[in-house]
Write a structure and sequence with these properties.
The protein is an alpha/beta fold. 19% of the residues lie in helices and 20% in strands. It is built from 13 helices and 51 strands. α8 packs antiparallel against α13 and α11 crosses α12 (911-927). The relative contact order is 0.04.
Length: 953
């Protein structure tokens, strides 16, 4: 027993001695306790270990730990640098007080959450405090004025709320202030104009409002100011022109109005000015041409008018000029072509006219030119590619004419060429062997002749090729067309192309083939079954013969097939009844025989998909009767007449019964028509006649079919059923939907209704949906544009519709693409409409007159945001991370980001792009947090996404 007592005494004395030793090193003890309070899944602080008992020492053991820096004598910790350690949890304030000599505290790029501990402000020797890219929340704590020597305060990308801390303005030595990317609200304090040494101020991407204080003009030492992506009132204060040292000014996406102050021309050191995505109006001040160092000028997406000032010819350092999406007019000054540094010219979607400057590209190395959607005439400047680095040339929707300059073939750097919707003529002079990097080419809606160049197969990276609606093009399909290794979209509709289709052997990646309205003949090769990625096949209005290959039905991605108006014969391809992806099979106006298999998919297509085949029967056409086989035989005429007479009697009885029902139901069968902008003023009868029978229109509320209206307009038709007493509320809501227009929402053109049924007529968008194309390889820029477009459409529904409209069924299948592959949200509001169409629909789903949504609608808005996060992850991973929100918790954030880097070939991108990918992932994760209250609003989502790349459009 004495032995055990001695053992316990020895252990106790050893523990006491160790405690005494550690007491001489409070820094190590504090840091070790600090470590125990953190979440460190990656064991980043594995070397933070206390030593065994040893002789007392004046030196600090923690000086050897990672992230810890001590003074020269190793007697005090002066720097704690824990950036990018994958640490999480609440940052413990109780251990901080011992670090009185700390000069630098860096906690950036971690996942710290909760409130920022106020004890940090007891570290009065701090000169740099970096807590950026974490998830600190709540109001910014008081007491920061006690950090009298603070030079750097970086709190970028957190979740702080409340107002901006006024107390910060008392920091006399502060040079860097970054409070961007949180949820600060209210106005910018006027006191922020009192800093004496501040050089960098970044407040963008918050919820700030009110007027921009003119007192900011007193900041004489600031060289960099970003205060955009907020929602200010009023205009740009002219006093900002007094910031004499300013080199970078960004107030983009800030709802500013009024004109651009000419006093900004006093910023004679300014090299970057970003005022895009506001509501600025009026003329561009010619005085801006006096800012000679200016290299980046982006005033896009405003309401600016008038011409480009001639004074801009003096901006010899100008690299980026972006005036797109305004209301400007006039011609482009010749002096713009003389700018020696110009590499990016973006002036699309204005009212510019005249010719492009003859010397454009002659004096600078142009990289990106987009002048689309204007009124330009003439030809492409002959030296536009002279610099040898032009990779995007976008000229569509103008009035350019003449032959296409052969010099375009010398643009070996071209990746994207879009000249559709102009009046170019003559043969296509491009030498595709000289365009090794071209991936996207659209020559459609011009007047080209001479056929598709035979050497086009040499463009080995070509993914998208569209030459449709060149009505006199002629020629044949080049022999090796389908073997292009990366081709995904081939569109040559309405081009007068003749001959036979080449073999589809080696068809690898193509998903869309559109060859309708040509003069193609011969059979459809069975080798088309090699096109495993094919999703959309349109061969309508040609001269094809032979049977429809059964092999088509084996293509698992194939959803849309149009073989109408040809000379196909033989029996109906019954194997399509086994297809799981088929949405539309149009074989109308051929010579198909036999019976249509009983299948809901075929029935939902309507009879218009099978009409014009006299030997074809079965739903949705007339039923196939066994007795029909004897109608033409000898000795059966009497039987035929008897049957016809009986049929006539039955029809008379049915018609009489229908008349009685009609009279009893009164006006229930009376149809009315409401048209919105974009649809001619048809009558209800015009629309109803576009359906070959009542069965041609699907009867399920979730079904959609295609119809051709009297003038030839093709529309998508959606059917909504409701009870008579709900007619008023349904039609009012549909009218509200029809009057809400946004470029990323599918247009509701009109609706035709009676007192129990409505047909909603939408734009027919032929290029499929995101679910079908999720596996399409896209570069990062294309993915970013896709994400931002979807977000803009959803933000419009949530924040610019009064009352708000929730989508209700946001998924990749409801993101559809137009002819320019611009995404549009479809099916928005349909879930709400379906609920209100029921007489038992709960009152809680109604919208208040104030425009505020009640609890159930708020839940649906939150659900939209969650689903958006899932779609973002789906896009980033090329469809691998479907329904990502439910799987996120099984992965760490860094592991997920690493996988997405791999999916997007992140190793090939610059560090800035890798950072951008990471930030977009973080937005997706915010959207898919489990607690709806923690999800950002759609305005916040759009601000965050838009803020990642200020120059991206």
């Amino acid at each position: 027993m004495e032995i055990f007592h001695f053992f316990y005494l020895k252990v106790f004395l050893s523990f006491l001695f160790s405690s005494l030793v550690l007491a001489t090193d409070p820094y190590s003890e504090a840091l070790f306790s600090f470590k125990s309070d953190l979440i460190d899944h990656h064991n980043s602080l594995s070397d933070w270990l206390l030593p065994p008992a040893q002789n007392p020492s004046i030196k600090i053991h923690a000086c050897s730990w990672s992230g810890v820096k001590c003074n020269r004598n190793f007697t005090a910790v002066i720097s704690l640098h824990l950036s990018e350690k994958n640490l999480a949890g609440a940052f413990p304030g109780k251990h901080i007080g011992v670090f009185t000599d700390l000069v630098d505290l860096n906690l950036s790029h971690n996942s710290f959450s909760g409130k920022l501990p106020f004890q940090i402000f007891n570290l009065t020797n701090l000169r740099s405090l970096d807590i950026s890219r974490n998830n600190f929340s709540g109001e910014f704590p008081p007491g920061i004025s006690s950090l009298a020597d603070l030079v750097v305060l970086d709190a970028f990308s957190n979740s702080f709320s409340g107002t901006l801390p006024v107390e910060i303005s008392q920091l006399e030595y502060l040079k860097i202030l970054n409070l961007a990317g949180s949820y600060f609200k209210g106005p910018i304090p006027p006191e922020y104009g009192s800093f004496k040494r501040l050089e960098f101020i970044h407040l963008a991407g918050n919820l700030l409002e009110g007027h921009i204080p003119p007192e900011l003009g007193r900041l004489k030492t600031v060289t960099h100011m970003e205060i955009g992506y907020n929602s200010y009132d009023g205009s740009i204060p002219w006093q900002l022109g007094n910031m004499s040292e300013l080199q970078y000014l960004d107030i983009a996406g800030a709802t500013l109005s009024g004109s651009i102050p000419k006093q900004l021309s006093n910023l004679t050191k300014l090299h970057s000015l970003f005022l895009f995505r506001n509501q600025l109006s009026g003329l561009l001040p010619w005085e801006l041409g006096k800012i000679l160092p200016l290299s980046s000028l982006d005033l896009s997406d405003n309401l600016l008018s008038g011409p480009i000032p001639e004074s801009f010819a003096e901006l010899k350092n100008l690299r980026l000029l972006s005036l797109m999406y305004n209301e400007m007019n006039g011609s482009v000054p010749q002096g713009i072509a003389e700018l020696p540094s110009l590499d990016t010219l973006l002036i699309w979607d204005n009212y510019f006219s005249g010719s492009l400057p003859e010397g454009l590209g002659r004096n600078s190395k142009l990289k990106w030119v987009d002048v689309s959607t204007n009124n330009f005439v003439g030809s492409i400047p002959p030296d536009i590619c002279a610099g040898g680095v032009l990779f995007k040339l976008i000229l569509f929707s103008n009035n350019f004419s003449g032959t296409l300059s052969p010099s375009i073939s010398n643009c070996s750097s071209l990746v994207r060429l879009r000249i559709e919707d102009n009046s170019f003529s003559g043969q296509i002079p491009l030498k595709f062997s000289h365009l090794p990097d071209i991936t996207y080419m659209d020559l459609s809606r011009n007047n080209f002749t001479g056929g598709i160049p035979a050497d086009i197969s040499l463009a080995s990276r070509l993914e998208y090729f569209n030459i449709s609606q060149n009505r006199e093009l002629g020629g044949t399909i080049p022999a090796r067309t389908w073997s292009w290794p990366r081709l995904q979209n081939f569109s040559a509709s309405e081009c007068n192309i003749s001959g036979h289709l080449p073999s589809f052997n080696s068809c690898k990646s193509i998903s869309v083939i559109e060859l309708d309205r040509n003069s193609l003949a011969g059979s459809l090769p069975a080798s088309i079954s090699d096109c495993k990625a094919l999703a959309n096949l349109d061969m309508a209005n040609n001269k094809f013969t032979g049977v429809i290959p059964q092999e088509l039905a084996s293509l698992q991605a194939l959803g849309f097939i149009d073989l109408s108006h040809n000379n196909f014969s033989g029996s109906f391809p019954v194997k399509f009844a086994e297809s799981s992806s088929l949405v539309l099979l149009n074989v109308s106006f051929n010579d198909i025989s036999g019976s249509i298999p009983s299948n809901k998919v075929f029935e939902s297509m309507g009879s218009s998909a099978f009409a014009g085949n006299e030997k074809l029967c079965g739903r949705p056409l007339q039923r196939c009767h066994a007795s029909m086989a004897i109608f033409g035989s000898k000795g059966t005429r009497k039987l035929t007449w008897v049957l016809l007479l009986c049929a006539g009697v039955v029809m008379f009885i049915v018609a009489s019964a229908w008349g009685i029902v009609y009279i009893r139901k009164g006006s229930k069968g009376q149809w009315k028509m409401v048209s919105f902008s974009g649809l001619p003023r048809f009558t209800a009868n015009d629309v109803l006649r576009s359906f070959s029978s009542t069965e041609a229109v699907p009867h399920l509320s979730s079904s959609v079919c295609k119809a051709v209206l009297p003038t030839g307009i093709t529309v998508s038709v959606k059917t909504i059923e409701f009870e008579a007493k709900r007619t008023k509320i349904v039609t009012e809501f549909v009218t509200q939907m029809g009057n809400r227009r946004h470029k990323n929402l599918i247009r509701l053109l009109g609706f035709c209704y009676n007192k129990q049924l409505a047909y909603l007529l939408y734009d027919y968008l032929p290029n499929g949906n995101l679910a079908e194309k999720i596996n399409v390889k896209r570069d990062w820029e294309a993915k970013y544009k896709l994400v931002i477009s979807i977000a803009r459409g959803l933000c419009f529904l949530h924040h610019e519709c009064y009352p708000a409209i929730f989508h209700g069924d946001l998924k990749s299948g409801n993101v559809v693409f137009d002819e320019n592959m611009e995404p549009h949200l479809a099916e928005f509001g349909i879930k709400y409409l379906a609920e209100m169409s029921k007489s038992s629909s709960p009152a809680t789903l109604s919208m208040k007159n104030t425009g505020e949504s009640n609890l159930n609608v708020k839940e649906e808005l939150d659900a939209d945001i969650y689903r958006l996060g899932e779609i973002i992850l789906e896009i980033l991973t090329n469809g691998r991370f479907v329904n990502g929100g439910g799987s996120i918790e099984s992965k760490g954030k860094e592991a997920l980001i690493g996988e997405i880097y791999d999916e997007n070939e992140g190793g090939c991108y610059s560090e800035s792009v890798r950072e951008e990918i990471k930030l977009v992932v973080e937005v997706a994760l915010l959207c898919t947090t489990s607690r709806a209250a923690d999800r950002p609003s759609m305005e916040d989502v759009l601000n965050l996404l838009s803020g990642f790349k200020s120059q991206r459009k």
